[in-house]
Amino acid sequence: xxxxxLVRLLAGTFILLSLALGVPGSPVFxxxxxxxxxxxxxxxLLQSALTHWCLMESILRxxxxxxxx
Length: 69
Description:
Blueprint: H1 3-22, H2 34-51, H3 55-62
Keywords: Membrane, Transmembrane, Transmembrane helix
Protein name: Inner membrane protein YgaP-like transmembrane domain-containing protein
Organism: Polaromonas naphthalenivorans (strain CJ2)
């Protein structure tokens, strides 16, 4: 799996997990503050789209995950 694929996989997982933990109707609701994590992930995706730089992708590459598209 390439680094860009892992970034999208992790972002999607983080969003779904934070929504499950932050929406009051969810059976695993913990706190509405988990929605801030959803916003954090969204802001980072927006930033990476505009600047063509992604911190998570840089970290994954340093861990040995191959780049590519």
